[in-house]
Amino acid sequence: MNQYVAIIVTVLFLALIVQFTVTHKLKDRYAFLWLVTAAAGVIAALCIPLLNRFALWIGIAYMPTFVFLITIIFILGLLVRQTISLSKQADRIKTLTQEFAVLEKKVLDLQKQTEGRESK
């Protein structure tokens, strides 16, 4: 029974990701990652007995602990990836702000020059 619930939940998650991708609520760059994650969830739900045996083989007596461990590692990986992306965006914003300030200064200088020529 638990396996059926897991399969239903993961298939619904996969359908939700597909729907977000089709309606462009999820960017293509991230859609692939989430589609692979959802597909891995479906496969894991189908292979619960195999996961139980694998968890015992590596020394984890309670399989949900193994699932939580994998989930935490995955979430940490996502957080690192998002932090790197956020750092790159902050650098880009800083560069754009500096370039904008330089261009604004040039425009103001040009306006002053044209005003000086018109008043003569």
TrEMBL record:
Pfam families, per this entry? DUF2304
Q: Which UniProt keywords apply?
A: Coiled coil, Membrane, Transmembrane, Transmembrane helix
Put simply, this protein is called: DUF2304 domain-containing protein
Q: Which InterPro entries match?
A: DUF2304
Bilayer-spanning residue ranges: 6-23, 30-51, 57-80
Positions in coiled-coil regions: 86-113
